[in-house]
Amino acid sequence: MKIAIIGAGAAGIIAAITAKRLNKNIQVDLFDANKGIGKKILASGNGRCNISNSHVTPKNYLGENPDFTTYALKEFDFKAFEKFCKSIGLLLDIKETNKVYPLSNEAKSVTRLLELTLDSLGVKVYLDSLIKDINKENEKFSIKTADKEYTQYDKVLISNGLGAAPQLNANESGLDFASKFEHSFNPTYPSLVGLHTDVTYHSRMQGVKKECNVSLFINGQLEQEIFGDVLFTKYGVSGFAILDISQVAAYNLSLYQDVKIAINFFPKLHRNDLSDQIQSLFKTAPKQKALDILTGMISNKIAPVLLEICKIQEDTKAEQVNAKQIKAISYQLNQWKLKITDTQGFGHAEASGGGVRTDEVDNRTYESKKCKGLYFAGEVLDIVGNRGGFNLQFAWASGYLAGKSLVRKS
């Protein structure tokens, strides 16, 4: 039996290893457009390699049908992943947050051990090999690069991801291949990414970072609330809270919905209590500028923008600010609303949403329901995980099941 795997990311690598371990006599060819394997593995966790998460459920995923992940996450749960890692000599560091890293704290050690395992099993790895086309004739597949054709494959696994991180040669060719075999797919969108807002004061607040509560509104309805870091940027907002909320925000932007966020700078304070505190501060120093007093509460980059929004002059003294204006200040700090107009795009995204529709793929074997011998795994499917190692865990799990299926005689 002869198998081709397109994409040497987490899903493709574990599929190749699993298949060869189950049947050492089959030929497995692994193709990747990069000069090395696992480029997105290397980039995960800011280079520290957030390789998985020790507590994963289908609720950690988005897509047309997140429950598609249930069987894979059960069959290849964290214990199974940990066992796999030990089998290649990789020890793990499990954090209290459930995020999982290599004990070495270096992503390179992960890809190096995977490389050694592939080599020891006799998997043929073709690097710098961007696949341009796939064909099937007389029950056999052939795949083409720009200058070479590889033929006589019994089965093909498409695991080359989607468009997030094009600087790592990420592309959406997997969708083109899927379409060729009559698969449909849902529109793709950047996920875990910074968000653009429609205000004009971006540059004035750039660099400010604060732990806040962020609420997401879709067509005026509250959809999600997240607490975490918010970073103001020259284009809008980023930070961990924004990356987390961006998944639902970006998905709805792709559907042309009205998307807004509201940032609460003081989530532990009720709006009325915040108003009382501001009023008390102003009474303590009535002759001081309101602007200067506010910088004791919030960033000196935010304070002038805050006064501008509340229609208060920067040189206004504290004693000149009336009760209605103080309520306006506290309201703004409690619910700083921003309209989301766009994302930072695939070039800055950690993952891609959308992809091959999961109802056209078997959730136990990951074989296509449209074309016998064709398989899909990982990000190319319409499944995207939350931040924190969930995307890689689905890649490992789906790749593992695909690898098991690839060696079965059909």
From TrEMBL:
Q: Does the keyword rRNA-binding apply?
A: no
* Pfam families named among the record's database cross-references: HI0933_like (PF03486), HI0933_like_1st (PF22780)
Q: Which NCBIfam families match?
A: aminoacetone oxidase family FAD-binding enzyme (TIGR00275)
Species of provenance:
Poseidonibacter ostreae
Cited PANTHER family:
OS12G0638800 PROTEIN
The RsdA/BaiN/AoA(So)-like insert domain, residue ranges: 189-350
Which domain of life does the UniProt lineage start with? Answer: Bacteria
Enumerate the UniProt keywords alphabetically.
FAD, Flavoprotein
All copies of the RsdA/BaiN/AoA(So)-like Rossmann fold-like domain together span 2-404
Q: What is this protein called?
A: Aminoacetone oxidase family FAD-binding enzyme
Recorded hits in InterPro entries, A to Z, give: BaiN-like, BaiN-like_dom_sf, FAD/NAD-bd_sf, RsdA/BaiN/AoA(So)-like_dom, RsdA/BaiN/AoA(So)_Rossmann
Organism lineage string: Bacteria, Pseudomonadati, Campylobacterota, Epsilonproteobacteria, Campylobacterales
Cofactor(s) required, per the database record: FAD
Q: Does Methyltransferase show up as a keyword for this record? A: no
